[in-house]
């Protein structure tokens, strides 16, 4: 049997149109997923790897934003300023300005022990000791809060501090923002005057002691009299010595 020519049926008619119709009908009947081109896993990896490298390079090249330091500062007030040993004193700490402080900590130190010290923070909590008070204030939004953050420390300066001692009170404020800019400080200081003893009235003298020194006479009179007496004794000794020498000397030759 002789093979048929392409695109011809047994009767010799053209079949090109029929074949084209069948092809189009078959394409329409196939699912949409079957008509999509197939992609391999290796193809996706070859595309994703350069893309991820490009994104990493862009992230590394992007400038890191510089944190803006908060515009704030601690303020320390001591009342009364220059408190003496045995005197009660109140230290007030406020944080003025604007900005945000995260995990805020305020530390107060003094070189003079405080007896019966108490500390109160608004907001926050404090731990107090005679020379160091630490207050945790948490996160602060300065300038927007209804009240300025405040810490009140009260105590009595311990008696017995030597005169001339320098009493220094110091406040430091640290936060998450201060790790780059450094802590903020405030302080005051004063020198304790002369004596720390409580002044008392002088003791009354006994009648016998009062009669030994006549009123109105200086205590230097006995000392002057002693000096005069010593001079007289020395002069008398010199005169006596001169007389003895004259008596012991031989008489002149004319008197023999």
Automatic annotation (TrEMBL):
It comes from the Bacteria. The keyword Membrane applies. Residues 19-36 have a biased composition (Basic and acidic residues). Keywords: Membrane, Transmembrane, Transmembrane helix. Residues 1-37, 196-216 are annotated as: Disordered. The chain crosses the membrane at residues 221-239. This is DUF11 domain-containing protein. It comes from Micromonospora kangleipakensis.
């Amino acid at each position: 049997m002789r093979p048929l020519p392409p695109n011809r049926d047994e009767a010799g008619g053209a079949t090109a149109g029929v074949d084209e119709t069948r092809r189009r009908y078959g394409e329409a009947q196939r699912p949409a997923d079957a008509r999509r081109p197939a992609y391999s896993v290796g193809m996706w990896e070859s595309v994703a790897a350069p893309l991820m490298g490009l994104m990493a390079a862009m992230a590394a090249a992007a400038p890191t934003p510089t944190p803006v330091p908060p515009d704030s500062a601690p303020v320390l007030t001591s009342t009364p300023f220059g408190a003496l040993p045995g005197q009660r004193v109140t230290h007030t700490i406020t944080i003025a300005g604007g900005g945000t402080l995260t995990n805020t900590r305020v530390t107060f130190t003094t070189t003079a022990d405080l007896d019966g010290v108490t500390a109160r923070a608004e907001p926050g909590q404090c731990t107090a000791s005679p020379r160091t008070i630490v207050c945790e204030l948490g996160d602060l939004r300065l300038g927007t809060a209804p009240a300025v953050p405040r810490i009140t420390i009260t105590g009595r300066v311990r008696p017995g501090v030597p005169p001339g001692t320098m009493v220094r009170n110091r406040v430091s404020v640290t936060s998450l923002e201060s790790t780059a800019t450094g802590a903020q400080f405030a302080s005051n200081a004063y020198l304790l005057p002369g004596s720390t003893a409580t002044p008392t009235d002088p003791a009354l003298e006994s009648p016998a002691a009062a009669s030994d020194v006549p009123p109105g006479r200086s205590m230097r009179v006995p000392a002057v009299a002693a000096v005069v007496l010593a001079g007289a004794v020395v002069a008398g000794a010199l005169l006596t010595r001169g007389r003895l020498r004259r008596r012991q000397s031989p008489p002149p030759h004319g008197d023999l």
